Amino acid sequence: MKKISLLLHTIVLLTSSNLWAQANRNTISPQLKTRWTNEVGPESLNAEYPRPQLTRNSWTNLNGQWDYTITKTNEQPTSWQGKILVPYPIESSLSRVKKNLKVDEALWYKRTFNSTLSKGKRLLLHFGAVDQLATVFINGKKAGEHAGGYTAFTFDISDLVKEGNNELTVKVLDPTDRGIYPHGKQVSNPANIYYTASSGIWQTVWLETVPDHYISDIKMTPDIDRGVLYLTVTDKEGNGEGKNGAYTVSVMDKREQVAMLTGQTGKLIEIPIKDAKLWSPSSPHLYDLTIKMGEDEVKSYFGMRKISVARDEQGIERIMLNNKPYFNLGTLDQGFWPDGLYTAPTDEALAFDIKAIKAMGFNTIRKHIKVEPARWYYHADKIGMLVWQDMVNPHQGLPEGAKKAFEQQSRETIDQLKNSPSIVAWVLFNEKWGSYDQQRLTDWIKETDPSRLVNGHSGEILYVNEKLRSPSPNAYVSASMTDVHAYPNPMMPLKQPGKAQVVGEFGGIGVFVPGHQWNTNTAWGYIQEKPAALITKYSMMNLDLQLMRDKGLSGSIYTQPFDVEGEQNGLITYDREIIKIPFEKLREIHAALNPDIGRFEQVNIKEMDLTDPVEKYEKSYRAYLSGHKENSSIVNLAEMAKQSGDNTAVRLLTEDFIKEKNTAFSDEDLRFIYHVSESVSDPGFTVILQQREKLNVLMGGRKADNKIMNALYRDHIEPYATLQNGPDWKTAEEKITPYGTIGKEILLRAKTIHYLNKKDWDSYRPVAREYLKSYAQYLTSNEKHMLEKALDNP
To answer: What pTM did the predictor assign?
Structure first.
């Protein structure tokens, strides 16, 4: 009943954290820029080879401008709406489109490429990732399909191409959180810890020419105890299976040849690595590897390292790196960008995040509910960073087909990332988000990859403000570690025989930095601190970790390195421009837990102004009233007032702003009015009503509609729906009638949820049927199912 009683507030009364604008079809300014935003253009899109652990010289990058159009799911395109910049999600500003893809829509891409395929050669078409369902056509003929938005796939298109120009078409369906596939932190209505969707092609698309008999995959597993690298090479002939071809492998340490052997594809060989230089965050040493098989040659690299759980000198089970205790001092990286969403604007930006995290003094990243492009892991390998890689959780409602989709995505994830030395742990589930068959799946991962640790359930036991929110009597079955989530302060996890102990998430200290926010309407975090208090609070948390380390703690993951949309609990702002605790101070705080940081690159980021934002607002307000308006515009001052809780000033300043503009509102003006207007009595509410359709496009989805319904419910319906003697629907209807169909929608929904919660089925059925008939297309699948199921109650 708790979930149902909150239903109206959690689903209808939405305030948007999706602040993208549909400003211009050709050049679209993001809500928040990064230093790389302006570097992105059709001719400068991810020119680096996209798969560093299996490289060839003969490849063609297909990133750039493609034609695009949107149709209904089962329709074919009859025309093309414009250009989209691949590989940026259509919802992102960097795509140059910035549109939300609806659950009943298909996104189509089209471009041409030239082929001069010679005899005895094959042409492979690679996609880094397409979210969620992709169907690929070459010259109108189907090349293949792929389901799942996080892993790479390849089609052999040799038999479909012709000499000269060829047409490549891709159809994409992405129901996001309304389908059966893993969608990560992407949702249709982003807020708090959930973010804007990233639909369509979001990683590099490329062509590769290979011999008819070619190397299709390699698997490398280091064994530092025996001083060998285990290698298995897989091949293919034509469009079928391999034929166990002979190959030669050469291992180089810079310019020195370390080993040279021959092998047969499909069979495991051992390559001796004498006096191996071990890989670690402080010394990320990598060996180069070249494999030649007939006419084919590929290059790769590997690191000699070992990750394990074993007893230290005091008999405490700890995480060991290269057979020595190694505290995994980590942070929770979500991999979102204000301009590119799931896609970093450039390869330099992709590497920047890891460099910044290392410069803070961390040695571990928990890659949270996302699989990054292959080059991200390459940068982690080169820079020196341990990675705990999350599986992208199944759809939390576990609709039919969701388990199969999750397991397929997890298999592909492990296979795709199996060779990266930086990855030391697989994280199966997170905080019971769709968890099931935990022991079977944990055992399966351990059997699939015995060379790494398995965190079977990060945060299976969860504390918030020291209150147990998620008990679990049989926690951490079969896992390599026990993992507690504790917000805000870290807590000691359970002790179980044979397992390490880690704090899989803690922290979440919210500090907002004016001028560097995605959403000025919120500063979400598990706790809020003023800028000057952040260092002390963060330092105290790390002192707690040191004490816990002495009692057996092996790792910790702080939430989080960067602000993300509505979350402003990062150590660096979302635009990667301001660090809230200086790098030097962070390294000093972390030194006791990560004493051997090794080499790191200096990162250029401004330090946060420690002045209390409320104090800054008060000074700006005084200056404004004294006539010094050049130092603080109405917009900036109103946003500062809202963040400081001065709602009176917000209303007065917004009223002046609207009067000054006199209906000549730009997109930026409308975005501002949208943010500062919450109530029917706010001066901006009338503007939102008048500009409703434009704002829906500007903000994405039905954000303006939700804003209006939120205000109508709170001001005109709730006072009459919660009377002690029962609802006065007649008066509520009189209040909302002037607002037309949108008023009717929110009133009908309010009645539906009221009678559902009261279990007044005779009153519920007629209003629920009317509501579902008119507005079912706006509901999530879970909500629609719940409302329909309730119709069957006696």
So the answer is: 0.88
